[in-house]
Amino acid sequence: MSKRLAPVGVLILMVSVAASAGDVARFVNLGFSPDSRYFMFGQYGIHEKTSTPWAETFIVDVKANAFVAHGIRKASSPQQVDPGNDGIGALFDAVAEARAQKAQYRIHHPATGRMLYILVDGAPPPDTIDFRDFQAGTSYEVNLTQIPPSGEGGAAYWLAINVTGKDGTVRGYRAGELSLRRPGVKAYHIKAIFLAPNNASLVFLIQKEEQDSHGYNVRYMIETVGIN
Description:
Elements: E1 14-15, E2 26-32, E3 38-46, E4 53-61, E5 66-76, H1 88-97, H2 99-104, E6 114-118, E7 128-133, E8 138-147, E9 156-164, E10 170-177, E11 185-195, E12 201-212, E13 215-226
Antiparallel strand pairs: 1-2, 2-3, 3-4, 4-5, 6-11, 7-8, 8-9, 9-10, 11-12, 12-13
């Protein structure tokens, strides 16, 4: 199965995905706290039906792999945008609305961690990814298992992660849950993997393909895994 790997250490903050219909979100890495305990990210776009911008921001407790209290903020505008406008203004509004939580969890926007992997736009998404972090001398193998939608239940998935240290020690981890079916989700793909600034956690950017009456929409979520 083909893979697409980005050079280790490349700093790319925004990821976009092509789709034939529906509306497509753009992902933004908004940074970690100084101790790498908390991570903030956002997504934004244009509603396909109304041509109005929308955005969401999220703050995640990396250790717990869960949103913090009041960690989700949403913004939208009733005003249609002109062609060429990608809706990033709504993201600025959502970030501004989250300023109290940003201060509480000490989110530092430049602290984005280190990108280890990215799926190149247009490349077939693999179910198995293996790559090496040459800077740390660590190797990774990630297997995505998913089951398709059934009835009213959406697709579900889990990740099996093997990390091989430079001394040859292999450690196994798991994320996701096959029993969790999110309504409307047709498929999941691993879009990117980040290493937290303290090198102790991995952040998996998961692309969700959702379907509604207007077509396929693309949204993002994350899974976090402590590796030390």
